């Protein structure tokens, strides 16, 4: 039915946000592994080429990241704010019933919380990665001149 299809769509978005965050973390690790600019001109030019290739990977991924962030933000905008649930309601939510069953509404709230959290994490990590890559590129450019 339509409700299940919608839930599957948003669950797929959540998975995609998490996978993109993992990709960004791997790229952060790659950037951290790059040696500081040093050496003779050919070595510096090689580092510049490596950085350009790294930047191309970021630029290739940018539309996917931005599209997923936009979808996540649109989903969040259509959900009630988290402050609408009281502490007692939130604790009941986490408990479900004695068999661990959670209503569709509780599952939807949990999905919204997860999407909100992943959108914030991906946006932060993505912006940090792009900023650090920009700084690294400027550092290399300065070293070559």
UniProtKB/TrEMBL annotation:
Gene3D superfamilies: 1.20.58.60. It comes from Heliothis virescens. SUPFAM superfamilies: Spectrin repeat. One of its GO terms (cellular component) is cytoplasm. Residues 89-107 have a biased composition (Basic and acidic residues). This is Dystrophin. Residues 69-107 are annotated as: Disordered. InterPro entries: Spectrin/alpha-actinin (IPR018159). It comes from the Eukaryota.
């Amino acid at each position: 039915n339509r409700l299940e299809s919608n839930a599957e769509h948003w669950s797929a978005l959540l998975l995609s946000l998490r996978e993109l965050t993992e990709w960004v973390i791997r790229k952060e690790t790659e950037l951290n592994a790059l040696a500081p600019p040093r050496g003779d001109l050919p070595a510096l030019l090689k580092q510049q080429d490596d950085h350009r290739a790294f930047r191309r990977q970021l630029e290739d991924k940018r539309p996917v990241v931005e599209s997923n962030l936009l979808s996540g933000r649109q989903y969040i905008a259509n959900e009630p704010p988290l402050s609408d649930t009281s502490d007692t309601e939130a604790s009941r939510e986490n408990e479900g019933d004695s068999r661990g069953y959670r209503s569709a509404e509780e599952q939807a709230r949990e999905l919204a919380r997860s999407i909100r959290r992943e959108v914030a994490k991906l946006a932060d990590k993505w912006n940090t990665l792009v900023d650090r890559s920009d700084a690294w590129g400027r550092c290399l450019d300065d070293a070559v001149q």
